[in-house]
Specification:
By secondary structure, this protein is an alpha/beta fold. It is about 35% helix and about 25% strand. It is built from eleven helices and 17 strands. Strands 1, 2, 3, 4, 5, 6, 7, 15, 16 and 17 form a ten-stranded mixed β-sheet that branches. The structure holds (2S)-amino(hydroxy)ethanoic acid and manganese (II) ion (MN) (3 copies). The site of one manganese (II) ion (MN) has 6 residues, from strand 3.
Length: about 375
């Protein structure tokens, strides 16, 4: 499904969630970057709320569960508390973070970055989406699409944050364990590289006259693919997007732009891979007599979650007699940014064959239910003062 951030489809999903919330008498609000909050009051309004949730935006060919599972499981927790007439001391709030994926507009995690004051809402306004839309216009349309969700100051105080998410990898399924308690998240860097050469005739231009940005990109990428992941099983290097101009069968391209997504659990290794990518790209550009422009599009340092929240999730699993295992997330998540302002951790559920960012993404109803039960028990523990 294609529900990219701040799109018509994303606005429709937010609208539906807001309607469900209104139907249960929960209050809703949004902030300046359209993070959407749904609140069920507690008995002591002076206490900062417990925050649970995830994101609704998706990849161009994303699955139904990445993000949405965590957001709807969190909403289900509010409904379960309401149905059971449970009064928690702290309010419990559900959040849907804006633009976690970063696919249409980079960086990713814009909502949670802005919430913890490491974003740049003003600086993001003129960012263009891959299809050309302006971020500021799409953000305004998204805010205006939910007039019932008043815009309130960003970054309100919370006591803790817990996010349920599909693992997006094979570990839990292979281990036959229904719950992952996420202790940390590996680091991520996104680079966008543009090589500019000279369009020329494919048939008449000999090698020594060519300024071919695609040849340079292929050379650099081949060298990196042969060097980085084979040398380090923990390293991840992905070229996810490439545009070629003018993209004609018989024209030597004038310009090529491509993205490189780098991941590693160790910050210094992540930095050394980034340096290697930059060096290879610059060397290949020089070899092909080209201009290279390299931009950092996302930079999320690896991090660990709060041990106390990990313990609360562990205790929740224990009380529910649910097998669990601890693991570090290979995917980045809003929870890691949120952990800068409040104790946070995550609950993973297995997804079939570990496949995600793919429309065949699948989670069994049993695993969905188990994840929501652990989230409910965790939220209850955190919300009782
Ligand atoms: O790319 C990620 O790690 C996340 O799934 N958006
Ligand atoms: Mn996600
Ligand atoms: Mn994702
Ligand atoms: Mn996430």
């Amino acid at each position: 499904m294609n529900r990219q951030a701040l799109s018509t489809e994303d606005r429709a999903a937010r609208k539906r969630l807001a309607e469900l919330a209104a139907g249960r008498g929960f209050s809703i609000h949004q902030d300046a970057v359209a993070n959407l909050f749904i609140r069920r009051d507690g008995s002591n309004p002076s206490l900062p709320p417990v925050l649970i949730g995830s994101h609704l935006d998706s990849q161009p060919t994303g699955g139904r569960f990445d993000g949405a599972l965590g957001t709807l499981s969190a909403f289900e927790v509010l409904e379960a508390l309401e149905d059971a007439g449970v009064i928690t001391e702290r309010a419990v709030e559900v959040v849907s973070w804006t633009n976690e994926e970063g696919s249409r507009f980079s960086p990713g995690c814009m909502g949670s970055m802005a919430f913890v004051d490491v974003g740049d809402i003003a600086g993001w306004q003129d960012i263009r989406g891959v299809e050309g839309a302006r971020f500021g216009d799409e953000l305004a349309a998204t805010l205006n699409a939910l007039p019932e969700a008043r815009v309130q100051p960003i970054g309100h105080s919370i006591s803790a944050f817990v996010e349920v998410h599909i693992e997006q990898g094979p570990v839990l399924e292979r281990a036959g364990v229904p719950i992952g308690i996420v202790t940390g998240v590996q680091g991520t860097k996104w680079l966008e590289i543009t090589f500019t050469g000279e369009a020329a005739h494919a048939g008449t231009t000999p090698l020594e006259f060519r300024k071919d940005p695609l040849a340079a990109a292929i050379t650099a990428i081949a060298r990196l693919q042969q060097a980085v992941m084979p040398a380090d099983p923990l390293a991840r290097l992905t070229v996810g997007r490439m545009t070629v101009e003018p993209s004609s069968v018989n024209v030597i391209p004038s310009k090529v732009t491509f993205t490189i997504d780098i991941r590693h659990p160790e910050e210094d290794v992540l930095a050394s891979i980034e340096a290697r990518v930059i060096a290879e790209c610059r060397a290949s550009a020089e070899d092909h007599a080209l201009d290279a422009h390299i931009e950092k599009r996302f930079d999320m340092a690896p991090g660990t979650f709060d041990a106390a929240i990990v313990d609360v999730i562990e205790n929740a699993c224990e009380s529910l007699d649910i097998p669990r295992m601890k693991l570090v997330s290979g995917a980045f998540h809003d929870a890691l940014f949120v952990s800068r302002v409040a104790p946070a951790a995550m609950i993973f559920v297995p997804c079939r064959d570990g496949i995600s960012h793919n429309e065949s993404e699948f989670v069994s109803s049993e695993n969905i239910e188990t994840g929501a039960k652990v989230l409910l028990q965790t939220a209850l523990s955190l919300a009782q003062g």
